[in-house]
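Let us work through a complete example step by step.
Step 1: write down the sequence.
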Amino acid sequence: MVDLRPFFNPESILIVGVSRKEYTFNYTILKNLLEIFYRGKIYIVNPNADEILGIKSYHSLEDLPEIPELAVIVLGKNILSIFEQLARKGIKYIVIESEIKNSYEEQTPSQTHDFWWINRLNEIAETYNVEYMGPSMIGIINFINNFTTSIIPVRQHIMKKNRNIEAGASYIAQSGGLAGALGWWSPFQDLPISKVIHLGLGFHIKESNILHYFFKDKKTHVILLFLREISNDLIDAVAKCATKKPVLFFYVGKETNKEEQLKKAGGIAVENYIELFDYAKIFLWCPEPKGPNLGIIGPSSGAIHIIAKEMRKQNLSLAKLNNQNREKILEKVGGSTCISGNPVDYWPPDRFVGTKVCSIYNTSSKTLLEDKSVNGLILALEFFIEIEFDFSIFKKIKEEYPNKPIIATLIQAETEGAKRVIESASELKIPVFENEVERAVRGYRLLYDYYSKIKSK
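Step 2: predict the structure and record it as tokens.
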């Protein structure tokens, strides 16, 4: 197994080719490290500068006072010769973020473009016992250890909010833009993210190697993949990882047979890109569902029917309550609650006040969750200011029923109220889907299927 720790969390880094020109890739990589307050040692090499952004610039590799643990090449030319110099100097971990197309001048007319270049890189790596990533790589973002080699902007506040997470999702993208975007973007409900990587062409270290690293990484509990191509070694790696950690993927290629093989290996296919992150929070925050029977609470028959329709499509069922719990719902909740007690349709409440609605959700949630027939709970929230309530009531409910998933949906909720609910739910680790009711139901189904398959193996 390749030791990838120095790529994700080096004690020192050398950047070869840092530029003084603002808004360039070669400048941004150093700017990122300084803005996120990377705590390791930073060395840079630029023969035409004495310092850049306050960091001393060495004019050649020979001037370096020590051998750094990781080197990153962001030069546009002479990449092979620089790579060999770094290897000779004793640097064992090298990232090539330069574009390969800019380095053809190093070849002679008799040499084949890409294959010669690849073969020479691998020869050098083997000779000097070097591990390398790239070329054409956007980089790595390690939120946990406060490190990045990204050549596009990474925001300090995004790094900070993910720094102390206990468990997060790690993301491998076969797209530099989609990987790098996580340096400044996050889903509407904060999703704890551990690590992000775009490998570029991945001649030496491949996505399968990264999967194995994430598999062993204690801070990675869910693995996300954006794929243009699916290789056999990736399928094999997913097969080894998926029994212990969920692997969600979104594939945009045309090889449907490869996609099916990846599913059979245990990969969980999602229908669109944003579902990678929306479903990740279900797999991170929800316990194993014990069955397909759900309880529903909502303020209108419309919202409940939307949920129920998607449940039918996903072969999920409404839980049938015992007589005692059914009577409790009918007596204490009222509204339009059907005679079976589930779903709980509490409209209209007798008063337009948050305390009344809060009491309804509190009573209904506890009653449904204590019933043995209910395997999970979906909350439909159609908030406006007058009936908004403190969502933190679900802290105690989660503590009382830790083995049953709770998923919330916001339907046409007033903006400020929705924001407060999402913030509270994130603290409580309750997934929220805003105006995506069907997605909440599909997410429960994927969660149930995942654990069912694990048990069957």
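Step 3: interpret the result. The CA atoms of residues 100 and 253 lie 23 Å apart.
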